[in-house]
Amino acid sequence: MPERYDPTSGTAWSVEPRGLLVLPSDGGPALRLEYPDAAVWDLLALGNPPPAVVEKIAAMQGIPRTAAERTVFDAILRWTRAGLIMRRGGDG
Amino acid sequence: MRLSACTAGASPQSGLGVFAVPVRDAWLLHAPLHEQSALLNSPALERIAACEDSGSGALLAIRRALNKAVQPPQPRQGPLCPLFLCLLPTRACNLRCSYCGFGAAACNEPAMNAGEAARAVDWMARQVRDRGGETLDIHLFGGEPLHAPDVVEVVVHRTRAAAAEMRLTPHLQVITNGVCSEQRARWVGDYFDVVVLSFDGPRDIYDRQRGCCDGRPAFDAAVRTAAILSRSSADLYFRVCVTDYSVGTLAAATSWFCEQFQPHTIDLEPLKPTPESSAAGLGPPDPYEFAREFWRARRAALPFGTECHYSAALSGPPRLSFCPVGSDALILSPGGSVDACYLLEQEWGASGLDMHLGSWDGSVMRISQHAVERVRRIPSGTARCLNCFCRWSCAGGCHVVHKGSGAGAGFDDFCVQTRLISALLLLDEMGAADRAEDLLTDEGALKRLAMHSDDRLPREGGAHA
Ligand code: SF4
User: Fold this and answer.
1) Residue A84 carries which DSSP code?
2) What total of structural domains would you count in chain A?
3) For A61, nearest residue in chain B (alpha carbons)
4) Chain A closest CA to B172's CA: distance in Å?
């Protein structure tokens, strides 16, 4: 199974006019995500593996792949540390 | 009854914007440009037509309102000002509906490039911002747009991101068959403002008219999607293709839609015959039966607060075209062609029309103003429309499919159903639903209304019989 990142169990989110509102499962403060982070969250939650998310963020923002990689992997790191998403599948 | 031409004090557009059609023993006066409609007996109509400024109350008020100078709708002018951008992420489809006229079965064109689609959204956002607009209106159509989910995901997020950057309100609309996963259906409900679900009715109707590419039935997935969307924040519309097979069950199907899914609107459109539909043994409904069943469906939907709609019938202000053609809408195909019409080029080409506006290469939108002017001036309707009270609502129907059969040609099936439904809606609007019901029970009166050859008022020196 390719590497994926899913929202952790109990984490909820809602679509807002200018992004997303993420409600952590531990009852911590809500996190307001604007673009492009809102798109990264949604694409991960839809089950896109990170390379596909990078591809789509590059297309969406009209930026080079390397810049899109930074956007996506920074977000993954922040949200994993905050316990909002967790890794599934992939090697290692 | 003899009607004379108005002279002193008459509207310069008399005969252009004032119509009357027979409704049993009465006349339905319709003057869309003057925003007047009334149900009159023959003497009252005669007075109106004779421009008599006599009489009392309501009649005098109508007469005076008809004397006001009015301006018929005009083609747009000036630089391109697109109302919305419609992207066709793919022309391919996961279904094989027996009547599809969009060439999905034969489609071997690749899907749209996601990055180029996103840049087209940026272009549209700049257009809206630069003209001081507020809403970034992006539509997705196909083929089946969700058959190219990667493009749709990028377009949806680009629309929302661009709107946020330029302080616009995003408005997303999709026309889909809804045969997709549960997760995708929830996602569509979360992100789209309007979802038009192509859905023909309960299982027996659906399975007769639609199915997956591999022959599997698609009904259960479509029902699951409809149920998810009915609980979402999106406005849910159904688009129902009505055939000779399904027309008799329209009211029952409408009740079922309303009970199960509480849609905002149900759009009931008769089948447009294709070689595929003929091969499947499906034909368009009889126009009289369609009008009757449309009315029954409309009544069935009423208690649920759901609107039943037929695109060629009266709705909103007078118009020159019942579709986006001429309103500067831009339809972007996967190959980069930008057109004014959703249909395939072969189809409009075969009708002698050129709907091509320009091209999009992923960074530059090349739209020729000459092409924009040409499309804005595609004549609406034919000679027969000049005499018809639906002239400023139906406006001739589809420029491509409802080809005029020449000057002086009589009303065809499309005209019959459009004229009947328009009259029924007018009666309903003026609180005379009982008169509409009466009309529907009188076969002869329906035919007289549908085939009334010249609705204009006054007719030059002729009898209004
Ligand atoms: S004549 Fe037929 S096509 Fe023309 S406006 Fe009337 S109903 Fe429509």
Assistant:
1) S
2) 1
3) B158
4) 12
